[in-house]
Amino acid sequence: MPQPSPADLAAVDLDAMVAVARERGDTRSDDEVMAGLILGAEFMASRHPDEGMRVRAAAASVVATRRLAARVGPDEAARLLAASEGPIDEQGELRRPPG
Length: 99
Known about the structure:
The protein has 99 residues and is an all-alpha fold. Helix content is 66%, strand content 0%. Helix 4 (51-72) crosses helix 5 (74-83). The longest helix has 22 residues, at 51-72. The radius of gyration is 13 Å and the shape is globular. The two termini are 15 Å apart.
């Protein structure tokens, strides 16, 4: 996974990302939404063909992981990630990225 710079991390608007999930119909808790966003971001950071998108996705993953761990603690964050169905897509469907 690419290593985002401090500027890349500062550019992440996690609140806006959660808001988009809400607009798409995601009714899970904010913590569950963040876990789904982390899974989607990590998948994109490892596989997207565009380097810039990989860096932005890696930054989103780092920021969301830090916030989730700060909110619920590392053990609960790990549990949420393991149980997550992934991010909600443009059609309002939950899709866990392939592992």
